[in-house]
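Practice problem: predict the structure.
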Amino acid sequence: MASTAPTAHPSTARIGVDVGGTFTDLVLHDPARDLVHTGKLLTTPHDPSEAIISGIVRLLEETGLRPEALHSVVHGTTLVTNTIIERTGARVGLLTTEGFRDSIEIGRETRYDLYDLFLEAPPTLVPRHRRLEVPERIDANGAVLLPLDEAAVAAAARRLVEREGCEALAVGFMHSYHAPRHERRAGEIIQALFPGLPLSLSAEVAPEIREFERTSTACANAYVQPLMQRYLDRLEGSLKALGFGGNLYVMLSGGGITTVREAKAYPIRLIESGPAAGAMAASFLAKLAGLDKVVSFDMGGTTAKMCLVENGAPDHKFDFEAGRVRRFQKGSGLPLKVSVVDMIEIGAGGGSLAHVDPGSGLMKVGPRSAGAVPGPVCYGRGGTQPAVTDADLVLGRLDPAYFLGGEMKLDPDRVRRAFAERISPAIGMAAEDAALGVQRIVDETMAAATRMHLAEKGKDPRRYTLIAFGGAGPVHACNLARLLKMDRVVVPLGAGVASALGFLVAPPATDMVRSYVGRLERLDWGRVNALFEEMRGIGHALLTEAGADPDRIAYTPTAEMRHVGQGFEIPVPLPGLTLAEADLPAIRAAFFESYRARFGRVMEDSPIEALSWRLACAAPGSDIRLGGAPAGGTTSLEAARRPGRRVLFEGHGWRDCAVYDRYALPVGAEFAGPALVEERESTCVVGPDSAVAVDAMRNLVITLG
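Answer:
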């Protein structure tokens, strides 16, 4: 789009920024001008804020807006999860109750692979010599058995900071979820000794029962806190230097947005920040399209994310494992008590590298990625190992002259040489057949992961619609849907940057939890109500600070409950924020309904206990309409056609494909595959025997034959 002279506008524009491993995606929405504008550029791994600022400057130039016109910027990042996976965080020290120094290393005393004699345990973030004990003890009922030794706290803090060089401290005392006064006093002592030192109290980071998970979460929060504080400070400074005077918000792992202040205090709650935005975008698009059963498929340059969306909302869970030693093996990572969108994420993206395993002689794809630097071979930036994007180019799916709208030229000859030199000799196939093999492997990998994710929830993929987005998602969506036996795929306008859209439509929201354990008939309902009132007050203040209308904040209470004697609990909806003994029949009925939905049967005579009480606080998100007239006022399908090209399809060979300009397709247009639909940030590949219709929101609705 041609640049125009900047003009003054009220501060109504918002920008969503998604920093991925390969590309940084941006969406600008200005309701005052009924404007939606997108951007995509390579991520700058050494400093992600550089790509963010460059992208924002570009969007402002292309839309003719000044920085003063920006009301807010909403940001998501994979910096937290990358820091934990790569073990590049701060030097952390832990203060814990005397006798419990090794609890985060002992864990649950379980083996994630029972028969592996050489099992590799997930490494702790805090080595033993930086875990110090403090005399103190509070029992499970909140009674003080041993007063806090304040001199020992001060001595331990000095040793960790002055002798061990710790950049951040975590405090995790026994039963602090129930009685946090010892932890809070320890925090006061540490802050008085070392003002400004990043400090994580387990009772504030994760105020839940289960000592191992709570302490592990506090340590992880301390581990990433200095890095995230520096990053957010740098980003705020760069935005201010640009002339931005609005608010910077951050996406939480649970799909809500929060303030920078909250993000600096509890950065571990951002661990799935980037992927959550895609799930929120899919939920928003599903509502607009009137779909109640959807699988969100977000395939970018580094990873693919699949998420179940029902009735306009993604599934959530309240525990997460980071940095797994074995990618899909539960128990092989660091347990965290945080609210996250429930999705599966695998190393299958446009940058996933193809290689031949020297032992088996078989070709494999991923999880290692070319990233933004050097990138796939076709980028011409130093990459030598073929990637998924390289295979898509060889197969004819991508136009080498129109990648990123023509901004980045791709080199197919370089890719063919790379396949011929590195892949073909080892497997005895021509470059084109090897590229087709790469496509099949990555699609099968994603299909297997999606089947597993849905099977764990008792869901049948054939009853769902696939919503595909991300730079590589629409390229692989039809093949993936066929493997899952789905019959419909929806690809939204601007699919290549739809995750960034998720930041703009996500509501200001937060989840809070407090643990109070007891059998239902023995609970002190006054205490339960006090917990909910405390959480409601905190949530109200946080969301108001995040820009929510205080009169439109909704509060949804749930409890985690189980039968007495069981080891795991299930979430149960509650009838209200104020509860009494008269609500017991309704609470029991809700528990049995949730239990039956999960396990298929109930045990009505077995006593029930509650462990934790949760409150979800959310205000309405923004409504952004992506429809509108096609570019240039085009009203016919023929006017949207571009020169066709040949594409290699598995089982069909080389086929001549019609090519359409995504921005010129009118509402109501219909055409049959094989076809390619191109937009600046992505290409949608429609296979043979498929039909496409453009709906009222200008989504491509693909029906598979």
